[in-house]
């Protein structure tokens, strides 16, 4: 199972794949377009980052992308369809370019994805009431006492 990070820069989505770039790949090839960007907008919402757990084997709570059409070698990649994401109907068609072949070694018939939700920041745990004030403290001295 792989975890991949996606980043929105100037309104465009890219997969963060430094090993592809290190092997001479071009950043433009990492751009998520033709429906993949739309799907990342759904996944990330207003955030500019998204992390997905991805595999070609089903896993718990994964959402299935089904290959509809393998593209010719000139275009590369394949057209996929996802019916639902996190139990919400999306019915989204998307094209995944030939970088998919770099990631999986082939263009798989099915890809399973699951959003990895970031840990909430302090303000998402505590909503201040009117008149409440927050004092910034460091928990670093207390980390030895926390058990996870």
Task: Considering the chains and any ligands shown, give keywords for the structure.
single chain; 148 residues; 8-stranded antiparallel β-sheet; 36% strand
Short description:
Helix content is about 15%, strand content about 35%. The protein is an alpha+beta fold and about 150 residues long.
Describe this structure in words.
With 148 residues, the chain is an alpha+beta fold. It has one domain. The protein contains 4 helices and 8 strands, in the order E-E-H-E-H-E-E-E-E-H-E-H. A hairpin with a 2-residue loop joins strand 1 (2-9) and strand 2 (12-16). The longest helix has 9 residues, at 36-44.
Classification by helices and strands: alpha+beta
Which percent bin holds the helix content? 10-25%
Tell me the total number of β-strands: 8
Average the pLDDT over all residues and give the rounded result: 86
Uncertain spans, ≥5 residues at pLDDT below 50?
none
The tally of helices reads 4
SSE order: EEHEHEEEEHEH
User: How much strand content do the residues show?
Assistant: 35-45%
- The 3D shape can be described as globular
Q: Tell me the count of domains.
A: 1
